[in-house]
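Our platform keeps sequence and structure together, in a single record for each protein. Such a record has a labelled line for the sequence and another for the backbone structure tokens. This encoding replaces a full spatial description with a residue-level series of whole-number codes. Below, we set out a record of this kind in full and without editing:
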Amino acid sequence: MAAASDSLALQGVDDAAADMRSSQADALYEEIARLCGTDEQGNVPHSCEVERPTQALSATDSSQVLEQAALATTEAADEGNSESRAIVTQQAITLNAWLPGGAPGIPPLSQPHRESAVDLLQWEYEQVFGLDFARAYSGPAAEGRIDKLLSLHHRRINQLHGALGHNGEIPQPEPAYSSAAATLPSDADSAAAFVDTLVEQDADKWHAAAVAAAQEKRPNQEWLNWLIGIAAQSQAT
């Protein structure tokens, strides 16, 4: 299994990445056991056995190993059992979050994905509203972080506008939003906590969107790739 081999190859080169790939391998072996069942000794049937490697050539460049793993895992996110795709999608998000660089460009939207895109656009509008509100109460030290987050969300909004504009009207933002994250801030301390909550919930939102796309009966690989990329971006923020 690639995750287990990567873990061995990364030991002593990038121990944090090695631990991450080892945990991912554990999750995949556990999923095999869940799907296949085990006997009284905890062993899976012979037809489901996947030998775990015990040695691998040491990597010379951890980024290359992770890039290959991210590519392969992202491509596999729409394969296999629908329930198992959630695990693979989460692993693809985590791997992409480890790598530098931005998310891929948004693909042309098919009509079935328009509803999801509209929901995500409204989410982005809400994030911008919340961040703008928090910025008004933040001290100078926090403004730089908020400005970076605002820039990121505005880029997503622009991407979604471009995609939605090809096959219908573009929903516009509401004058105001009641934040689902927490009570709106009223001073610098509450603003800092509010932004932390927004960031955490943003990662959850995009993760859920990617998993939902992966679990469709016939996933659209390009749309799924974009969602994984944005979810990774949110996780790395």
Remarks:
- The chain has a mean pLDDT of 92.
- The chain has two domains: 2-98, 111-236.
- The CA atoms of residues 86 and 211 lie 5 Å apart.
